[in-house]
Amino acid sequence: MVQPIYSDGPEPRISRDTASVPYWFGHTAVWPTKNGIVLTLCGIVLFGAGLRVYVLDYQSFWSDEVFSLVVTDPTLTFREFWDRVLTDTHPPIYYLLLRLSSAFLGESEIAARAPRALFG
Q1: pLDDT surpasses 70 at 22
Q2: HSE, side-chain direction, 13 A CA sphere, residue 115
Q3: For a designed S-S bond to 109, which of 31, 33, 57, 87 qualifies (C-beta 3.0 to 4.6 A apart)?
C-alpha cells in the first residue's frame, strides 16, 4: 500500500501514485506526480531551445548584428575593443560574450547569434 504524503484526517488524502485532490472547487483534480512535472518542464525547455537554434543562420545579418561584429572584432587589441564598447550605450557584458564567441567560433552568423540563442 502506498503511504500518504500527508493527511488532514480521513479526507482528503494525497498519495504518491495518484496525487488526486478531492474537493478542489467542487471537482476532483488529478495532478501529475512530482517527477512528471519535472520531466514535462524539461521537455518544454528543450523544445524551446531547439526552436531557438533551429536554422540559426537562415537569415543574413541585420545592421545591429553587423555593428556588434565590428565592435567585437577578434583581431583588435583589448584596448581598442574596450574603447569601442565604451562609446556604445549598451552594457559591455554582451560585447564581452560576443567577443569570446567570435574568438572561438569565428565571425560567422552562427557565432554572432550564439550568445543570444544561448542566453535568450
Answers
A1: no
A2: 20
A3: 57
Determine, yes or no, domain membership for 76. yes
Q: For cell 472547487, what's the residue?
A: 25
Q: What's the rounded Cα separation, in Å, for the pair 32 and 36?
A: 6
Q: Do 69 and 23 share a structural domain?
A: no
Q: How many domains does the chain have?
A: 2
Q: Grid coordinates in use for 74? A: 577578434
* pLDDT single digits (tens) 33-85: 667 888 889 999 999 888 888 887 777 878 888 888 888 888 889 999 999 89
Evaluate whether residue 80 is within a structural domain.
yes
What pTM did the predictor assign? 0.56
* Residue that is written with C-alpha cell 584596448 in the block: 79
**Lookup: cell for 3:** 503511504
**Amino acid identity for residue 1 in this structure:** M
Distance in Å from the first CA to the final CA of the chain: 46
